[in-house]
Amino acid sequence: MSKHADDRPTSAADHEQLLAQCTSELEHAWSRCRDLFENMPAMSVTIRLGHDRLPIIEDCNRLFPGTLGYSRDEIIGRPLGDFYAPGSRAEAETQPWTKSRDQGGGERQLLDKYGGVLDTMLYLVTTTAPDGSPAGARATYLDITERKREEQRRQESQSRYQALVGQTLVGVCIVQDGSIVYANQKMADICGYTLEEQAGFLSFLDLVAEEDRQIMSERLRRYRAPDNQPETHIVRLTRKDGRTIPLEVQGAAVPFGDRAAVAVMALDISERIRLQNQIQQSQRLDTPGEAARVAETCTKALGAILGQCGTLLDVIGPADPRREQVEAILTVASEAIEQSQRLVAGGVPTQRAGSDARTAAMGQTPSTVLLVEDEEAVRGAVRGWLQQAGYRVLEASAGEEALKLAASHEGPIHVMLTDVKMPGMTGWRLTEELARNREPIPVIYMSGYPEPVPPFDRTNAPAAVLQKPFTPSALLKALQVALAGPAAEASSSSSSSSSGDRETDEA
């Protein structure tokens, strides 16, 4: 019998009561620990070391077998490495333990019962025996599969975005806290600075001409506003070489790196303004000859732009976002050509138009050209060149329309100028169909493709190819050759040579 602190003896009943109380408290604590273990929001296992020091699963919570598709009995007693995907089976915690290990972890891939792979984050805490030797570990796995997938989707989205923005015809830069945090290659081409040099600028406004910085600063502030409406502004930018160029800019608020930023899109409009100024100047000129030369120069430049755009449209698909940009350039160039044509039609003759006067003076009837082209902008440009050179033009946008037009035309058709690739009927097929009801006529094909024109078994008409883009002079020369024939071409070459010899003798 023992005594309490007050020297009173302790009976056996007291000992039994104290033991029962301690046992109850211990069982309650164990129940709480087990409940916490079972209901953890992560997969958890306890590990013991087998006779070969290989980690063996001693226990697991309900989430571990539930996530991997096993029962608890199928997991207890098996090596930990059995549940690792092939890419993680060489990790240290799956190998025989030869010494004590500190806490560890990292990304691991687990394999479920059906072969599916789960991305997890491992948190490993080692346990030791009373003598200090390693006894096992507690391993907790947090499922990060969805997070990894979301990260992969975000990376793919960023890759697609960078590919799209990197290839666009418009300069794009992201401005955050006033600085350029991203710029595409087109923006570098516009301003003349490399992407690395742009990243070194303290402020985006350093690129803007000094006289426009205040207004551009105000626009950047407006772009960040939630009620910002799409609006185009013109601002001047100072290039690395010191030249100042006009830009057409738009902006909008965008998230970048989990923070607010502004996306600025810039289009160099130097060439557009130059052409518009040329047209305006030609409209103000008093000397007809000077206005004619300006109009002809403008038409040639615009024709080159139309030809390049036509080639681009042949290779850019309908769903490509760059197609809209090319079509916008086509629209501007077409409007400029129409203004130039109105200038010429208002009574100002061009050098090409002189052929009209010579034709009329000789009493000859202008040759008739059947023009077939599905692109309206290209067709309008070519029609303008032909009319200025004195040709009568019958125009169609497709093969079927061209056949109907030829059938209803009572006069002769001296030459056909047709695109090769058109919806519904190719230029080759059109030539064959036209030859069924009319005498064979010379044909000139317009093509943006390097493939040759195939021979025709049913027609003996001569054919030539104009490779897009082509100039007005190339078009008119091809027409002269087609209408005159090979013999006249040789005679023309000989005459030109003799004329050059006479000029040399006179000199």
How does the SSE layout of this entry go?
Elements: E1 2-3, E2 9-10, H1 12-38, E3 43-49, E4 55-60, H2 63-68, E5 104-111, E6 117-128, E7 134-143, H3 145-167, E8 171-176, E9 179-183, H4 185-191, H5 195-199, H6 213-223, E10 233-238, E11 244-256, E12 259-268, H7 270-284, H8 288-315, H9 322-345, H10 354-362, E13 368-372, H11 376-388, E14 392-396, H12 399-408, E15 415-419, H13 427-437, E16 443-447, E17 463-467, H14 472-506
Overall description:
It is a single chain. The longest helix is centred in the last third of the chain and has 35 residues, at 472-506. Helix 7 (270-284) runs antiparallel to helix 8 (288-315) and helix 9 (322-345) runs parallel beside helix 11 (376-388). Strand 5 and strand 6 (117-128) form a beta hairpin. The chain is elongated and about 140 Å long. It has helices spanning 12-38, 63-68, 145-167, 185-191, 195-199, 213-223, 270-284, 288-315, 322-345, 354-362, 376-388, 399-408, 427-437, 472-506; strands at residues 2-3, 9-10, 43-49, 55-60, 104-111, 117-128, 134-143, 171-176, 179-183, 233-238, 244-256, 259-268, 368-372, 392-396, 415-419, 443-447, 463-467. The protein folds into 5 domains: 6-37; 40-141, Beta-Lactamase, CATH 3.30.450.20; 150-268, Beta-Lactamase (2-Layer Sandwich); 275-351; 356-496, Rossmann fold (3-Layer(aba) Sandwich). The protein has a 5-stranded antiparallel β-sheet. It is an alpha+beta fold.
